[in-house]
Amino acid sequence: MANIIYLDNAATAKVDPEVLDSYNQITLKYFANPSSIHSLGQEASRLLDKSREQILNVLKLTHHEVIYTSGATEANNLAIKGYCFANRTRGNHIITSVSEHPSVLNTVLELKDFGYEVTILPVNEKGAIEVNSLKAAIKENTILVSLMMVNNETGAINPIKEIGKYLKKFPKIAFHVDMVQAMGKLPLDLENIDMFSIAGHKIHGLLGSGLLVKEKKIILKAINNGGGQENNLRSGTNALALSASLAKAVRIAISNQAKDYEHVKALSKKLLDYLKDNQDKYLINSHFEENPYIVNFSLRNHKASVVVEALSNRGIMVSSLSACHAKHEDYSAVVYAMTNDLNIAHNTIRVSFGRDNTLEEVDELVKNLEQIIKEIKQ
Amino acid sequence: MITYDHIMIRFGELSTKGKNKKDFIRTLADNIKNALKDWPELSFETRYDHIYVGLNNLPYEPVIERLQDVSGIHALSLVYRASKDIEDIKNSALALMREEQGKTFKVKVKRGDKTYPIISDEITRIVASHVLRNTPDLKVDVHNPEILLSIEVRQEAAYIFSKTFLGAGGYPLGVGGKSMHMLSGGIDSPVAAYLMMKRGVSIECIHFASPPYTQMGVIYKLEDLLHVLNRYQTRIRLHIVPFTKIQEAIYDNAPESYCITLMRRMMFRLADGLAKRRKCPVISSGESIGQVASQTLQSMHVINAVTNTPVIRPLATTDKLEIIKISKKIGTYDISIRPYEDCCTIFTPKAPKTMPHQDEVEAFEKKFDYETMIKEALNNIEVKIISLDQQEDNLL
After folding, report:
1. Among A148, A373, B288, B309, whose CB has the most other CB atoms within 10 angstroms?
2. Using a CB-CB distance cutoff of 8 angstroms, which residues of chain B are in contact with residue A43?
3. Out of B216, B217, B396, closest to residue A244 by CB
């Protein structure tokens, strides 16, 4: 395919050449093990320290530490299992939501087998969590609340700031936030968050890089045991090139956030305008125009999988279900939770923008979507 | 909307310094320009008792924050420069007051330009009544106003301001000359360096490295420490003296308990030699009385005996907790506590002398040709320049 129009940035975003360049340079130049005490190892270790420091500086955090992981799935596992196992004496109740990424939801559900109680919050018709439902779910034995800031399927924004502020009243409860779809995209307020996860490949970094940032005072139990790397929380030789390139990706994402946001806003407006003009054919599932990065809609009269395939044949890449669910279920649980309509949940399409997309590409998408809908059977 | 467009910089102690004042102000102005060179949009104006930085629409917060690290500045005010026309003054004052948070205010006027036809009291009345008449809920409170609106009428313009920030105080860096500072990488020596700088003394640093007993990590640590201190002195020269041979010779020729005393004497000889070469009239260090064996008064006496050059010890009487507090404030603490050994902590004797005798020390020193070794060490110094504009490699 000659001209690919890539509109699946929420699944993974194309690596920034500058980030890749760092990765290559570091791989060749700083190849020593950062734990070795010879000077090459020490140089590697120093670069690793600096990368952590830079991430905290860029995010304006002072009482925190960075734990590098292989991605957000591992970071979410470490945050949830690590916190629950280390703080079992404080309680055993976890609160999360139905719209969470499987790396959170399935991890929390697994903890049921280990004697933890779980409350799964519903979402409202806009796809977001209600602060009141969280307030009602808190119990004497609650120790962890794990919620995402931005939903990966619909782009819905949860009231993280308000929840964080409220949870400060409960010193026993730690607040973990999956920041994967928010980092570098929306303005962040990290003040009352104890831990958060980031994936490199969603911010034009490399696949295989991710991190958990946590307040220093939060105690976790390691999930990977071994040589004690990452402050004894994630053993295994640190992949310096991945870690340092992630620091760069974070820096670029944060410094370009405002500019990219304006650009993507224009893209999503164009698509939303078209969808709003054709509401007989489409139902818009994204209700937060403050988040222009994800536009999710359902086909009222057509099968989404067929339309996605047809778009793909024309070189336009969009998602039907989020890639993480795609292989297991055939409808969107999040959209189902919002609409209670199986047909709508079956036929969702997610268009997710990145900073490299153009208005012309949105025009192409709209043009082709219009044609395909006319051509294929209902 | 009207916004503050200048930062007014007030000098600290230097207003008492008579004929040297011009030099002081020139040095301070240079330091200020140097500290702010990341923002080419800023403009500068040096006048007899203030320096003005023109913001040219830049946000003021980062500029003020940067300036608060420049020594020799007493206070900083965010000002609006109005013309001297009383109509302009009162209207600008009103517009600025409308942006303020608070319920009570007071107007304070200083008439630096004594030829100005309206006296201070009269200006106060004109401005205050204009503000009162045109704002719904502001009241005057001359004792505890929430907003203190100051107006200074000067030769060139009238300045209106309500926000004043404290500066770092001290003297402009450089007016106090230059010191050869002994930097180990621990908690104390960076704090002592900071205090020297604050007093207007710029520093060069001397460090003693004993590879392979000491690691490269120490040097990285020093670079990081000095990088923090670059906030106060934008360019610092670090001299790394090879100390291994001297240290080995000491251990071969003196009993263990005396080794620290001999080492410190050698270090002062080296610092003295380098200070002379680099035209530093003094040596400075982070020593604090009684903190370790080499810092008892008797030890200091025996160690200091090798040089006539004044040794300034800004922390001599400061206790450790206070030193730690300063190091946390200036941001060197977390770097200082990184676990690397320096040449003072390797081969630490079990019982170092706290009351060394000079005659004994001299007898041990006669046993080896330290003078040649010192010359050799001074000729093999490695120099690193640590500066603010050092671009980190673009890897991150």
Report:
1. A148
2. 216
3. B396
Fold of B178-387: Rossmann fold (3.40.50)
Question: Which residues numbered 220-249 in B keep a CB inside 8 Å of some CB on A?
Answer: 220
- Closest alpha carbon within chain B to A245: B396
For chain B, the C-alpha Rg in angstroms (whole number) is: 27
| Total H helices, total E strands in chain B | 13, 14
Specify whether A84 is catalytic.
Answer: no
Q: Residues of A49-85 as b/e, b for ≥16 C-beta within 10 angstroms?
A: bbbbebbbebbebeebbbbbbbbbbbbbbbbbbbbbe
A chain contacts of residue B392, beta-carbon cutoff 8 Å: 50
pTM of the complete model: 0.79
A228's torsion region: left (phi>0), alpha (psi -120 to 50) or beta?
A: left
Helix (H) or strand (E) holding B74: strand B73-82
* Rounded-to-10 torsion of CA A255, A259, A263, A269: 100
Does A42 contact B394 at a Cβ distance shorter than 8 Å?
no
User: Taking the domains of chain A in order of start, what are their residue ranges?
Assistant: 5-13+257-367, 17-255
> Nearest CA of chain A to the CA of B347: how many Å?
19
Q: Topology of B6-169 in CATH?
A: VC0802-like (3.30.2130)
In terms of CA atoms, which chain A residue is nearest residue B218?
Answer: A42
Residues B157 and B66 sit within 8 Å (Cβ to Cβ): no
Is B394's Cβ below 8 Å from some Cβ in A?
yes
Among A324, A333, A366, A376, the active-site one is: A324
Decide if A50 and B394 are in contact by the 8 Å CB cutoff.
Answer: no
CATH of A17-255, one of 3.90.180.10, 3.40.1000.20, 1.10.10.10, 3.40.640.10: 3.40.640.10
Residue range A5-13+257-367, CATH number: 3.90.1150.10
Are A278 and A372 within 8 A, CB to CB?
no
Q: Do residue A42 and residue B396 have CB atoms under 8 angstroms apart?
A: no
Of B216, B394, B396, the CB nearest to A42: B216
